[in-house]
Write a structure and sequence with these properties.
Elements lengths: L4 E7 L7 H21 L3 E7 L5 H13 L4 E4 L3 H14 L2 E4 L12 E3 L8 H10 L4 E7 L2 H16 L3 E8 L7 H10 L3 E5 L2 H17 L4 H4 L2 E3 L4 H7 L8 E4 L8 H13 L8 H20 L4 H8 L3 E4 L2 E5 L6 E2 L3 E5 L5 E6 L27 E2 L2
Parallel strand pairs: 1-2, 1-3, 3-4, 4-5, 6-7, 6-8, 8-9, 9-10
Antiparallel strand pairs: 10-14, 11-12, 12-13, 14-15, 15-16
Helix pairs in contact: 1-11, 2-3, 4-5, 6-7, 7-9, 11-12
Length: about 375
């Protein structure tokens, strides 16, 4: 007899320096579980553990969930937290459903990746910037692998186009003092700033940079735009009205996508979580992870990890961003890249988007700048 009742784990930090993003991700996972239960497909019973932003809390939280007999856990935002717990999942043969964009160069038979890979976020962003004359960049990022790898890809692409990175600075997660690096950026006057800071660090940087430019009479969005692969709607609200507009973000989802499916999603989310945070790519990725997991559980009729791994690659989902499915070789998702420009209303105008879902390429073997010259690459469609 097929199993219809399933416990799943939810592992997100809703406190600490990136707690705002964690709350948005938790909301997406819970909304998906409620939709699955209402559909009658199967019944999910989420068990939530909050690591509160502490790296050690992820390992302890994962162990606690696994000790309860749970084999499937949706969780983690940062790459440091993911890498902290992957060995636990591999040792205990459980499955982590990781719902966040990340730097790539990783696969594990014990991880399903529903967030964007480098060819779905950093590569489209680089192409977009190069097409608009961006040849020099100043990189400001968090001091861990997310920033290191994305900056490496950016340096490589710019070098092929005859450009360069004029400066590179890294800060601890949670750092809020940026006066020195802002002065360095203004001295270098790059074509754009590439931001890989996360959470409260990013919010403070955006405010400090805009304020310094304004004091010098510089039109920052036009002269030195800040480009990111992680900036999302809830974070625009956190940045505040004086520095929120004119930033570029490369993502597979924006709440402003104009489609019946997304309008239904954002309406359901607003009704369920009227106090927010606003839905974002991280929200949607968690939502996708739970729906794909539910479909795999229903198809397999068991929680056995090897069986679910196979079943997950046999199902698909019409997500708010568009159709999503998994690549059976890498367990990463086909997703639709987009470029957004932030507005004064703390949302995004979509400036460009791919015409269809793009195959994941976590190791950039098919889409790295070193493989195909930038000038000959297919480009995102510009949205009128």
């Amino acid at each position: 007899m097929s199993q219809r009742y399933h416990h799943i784990g939810i592992l997100f930090s809703t406190a600490g320096p990136y707690g705002l993003v964690g709350r948005a991700m938790l909301n997406g996972a819970l909304l998906a579980a409620e939709e699955v239960n209402a559909s009658g497909l199967i019944t999910l019973e989420p068990k939530i553990v909050d690591p509160e932003g502490a790296l050690a809390g992820y390992g302890a939280g994962a162990e606690r969930l696994l000790d309860c007999g749970i084999q499937h856990i949706v969780g983690c935002y940062t790459s440091s937290s993911r890498k902290e717990i992957i060995p636990i999942f591999e040792k205990r043969d459980a499955l982590l459903w990781y719902p966040s964009h990340y730097e790539g160069f990783e696969t594990s038979g014990n991880v399903v990746y529903t967030g964007a890979t480098p060819n779905q976020h950093i590569v489209p962003l680089v192409r977009h910037l190069l097409d608009r004359g961006g040849r020099t960049a100043f990189c400001v990022g968090a001091n861990y692998i997310w920033a290191w790898e994305n900056n490496r890809i950016l340096r490589e692409a710019l070098a092929l186009a005859g450009g360069q990175v004029t400066g590179e600075r890294y800060f601890a997660v949670g750092e809020t003092a940026f006066a020195q690096v802002v002065d360095a950026i203004l001295a270098a006057r790059p074509d754009f700033v590439f931001n890989t800071l996360i959470g409260t660090s990013a919010y403070h940087f955006f405010r400090a940079f805009r304020s310094a430019c304004r004091a010098r009479g510089i039109d920052q969005p036009r002269t030195m735009p800040v480009a990111s692969c992680s900036l999302a709607e809830p974070e625009l609200e956190a940045i505040g009205p004086n520095a929120v507009d004119g930033h570029l973000s490369s993502s597979v989802y924006f709440a402003s996508i104009d489609s019946p499916r997304n309008r239904a999603f954002t309406a359901a989310y607003a009704a369920r979580f009227p106090e927010g945070p606003t839905p974002s790519a991280d929200t949607e990725s968690s939502y996708i992870a739970v729906h794909l997991l539910a479909r795999a559980l229903a198809l397999a009729g068991t929680e056995d990890v090897a069986t679910i791994r196979r079943a997950a690659c046999m199902v698909d989902f019409e997500a708010p961003q568009g159709p999503v499915r998994l690549d059976e070789t890498t367990l990463h998702a086909y997703l639709t890249p987009r470029i957004g420009v932030s507005t004064a209303a703390a949302g995004f105008t979509i400036a460009a988007e791919a015409g269809r879902p793009v195959a994941p390429d976590p190791y950039l073997v098919r889409s790295a700048p070193r493989v195909v010259p930038v000038s000959r690459r297919p480009r995102l469609r510009v949205v009128p």
